[in-house]
Hints:
The protein is α/β, with parallel strands linked by helices. The chain has helices at residues 27-44, 63-72, 90-97, 135-146, 167-170, 178-186, and strands spanning 4-9, 50-54, 80-83, 109-113, 116-120, 153-156, 190-195, 202-206, 209-213, 220-221, 233-234, 239-246, 249-256.
Amino acid sequence: MRATTIVQLTDTHLLAGGAKAYGAADTDAGLARAVGHIVDLDARLAGVDAVVVSGDLTDAGEPEAYGRFRELTAAIRAPIFVIPGNHDLRAPLRAAFGLAGDAAAPVDFAADVGALTLVGLDTSVPGAAHGAVSAAQVAWLDETLGGQPDRPALLFLHHPPFTTGLDFMDAIGLRDAEALEAAVRRHPRVRLVACGHVHRAMATVWAGRPAVIAPAPTHSARIDLRADAVASFDLDPGAVMVHRWRGDALVSHVSSTEPAPGPFPFYAE
């Protein structure tokens, strides 16, 4: 059986005119490196089946920045699915990707890709940094997951529904996630909950499922677990996550997007 390979790209934070995010992070260059890496993975892994962008495509929701995102990702052959983050604006995002629906409505999606169903929930709250999921969205998720119960599903969110230990990020995490958690528990077909927002690779168990946060391609939240930690970031090497379903198992990889020497053989012939 052919594997199904999903690349998760998150928190690209593009700005109009190629400006650096927070005056320091060259997000245009970071996304360009990520795209080059995804194109390389497409060759190495016998095909990337889809790319899911789990929010914060832009830093300020500018139409020009969404256009730039489309330009920089044009080399990716696989379909690209997007959900907004707290830095995004729904209307220009919808316009840039030609997405149907009311301009102000949540940008949710569901798609069958290979052996998987990919589901994205828009956790953004207009005008706020924290996340939330409405009762209507939970009902839609229940209905969406209710079909094809034997088909594995991956659920993508921007805001993680669990505590990360980074207080300055948890303060703007997903609020009131109990109904969402109950919905996920009702549907065993959900094999992974994959998030963005924190700009740092993390893994835990939530709602009885593996849950991960993907790293970002340019800058990462500093790992400082003190209660008085200042909200800050480092220019760590960029990365994406690769979620690969094969047989009856899902394996998730963190894959660096930075150029590096290699490959070198482990054993001399």
